[in-house]
Amino acid sequence: CVPASPYRDMNGALTAIRYARENHVPFLGTCGGFQHALLEYARHHLGWSDAEHAETAPDSARAIITPLSCSLVEAFAPIRLLAGSRIAEAYGALHTQERYRCRYGLRKELEAEVFAGPLKVSGYDDEDEVRAMELQGHPFFVATLFQPERAALQGHTPPLVRAFVQACATAN
Question: What is the pTM of this model?
Fold first, then answer.
């Protein structure tokens, strides 16, 4: 799933994400894809049927995706990757600098509940805000609030995109 939320068909996006998650299909979500992967997981894995995105349901009592404290539009910022994570393996490092064009992220108060199961944080920013996550037990289910694909604008193949393509090539 790609940036540029809200999606024209949120239910279609959530259905595709759920299919990838439940059927072990490689998935890479960036920016809006990260947000919607969280929303899908909350609704279908955690059972929070009333989970919403504040961009499309600003008055929701269960908005799990809310405006960031500081907009990340056109930001370039450091990310601390967790050792042993798929994303750290893809980068071959525990630190990276990445580009954003984002205004929404996970509501901080829900972090412990959301990541208590198989979905795990795999990257934080300098303020310990979640910037990357992955699903344990899945061949490749990774989502980032940052947009690694923007490295292509400078003529670079992003390591995470390379890892995703490799996962797709070896998927059953």
Answer: 0.91
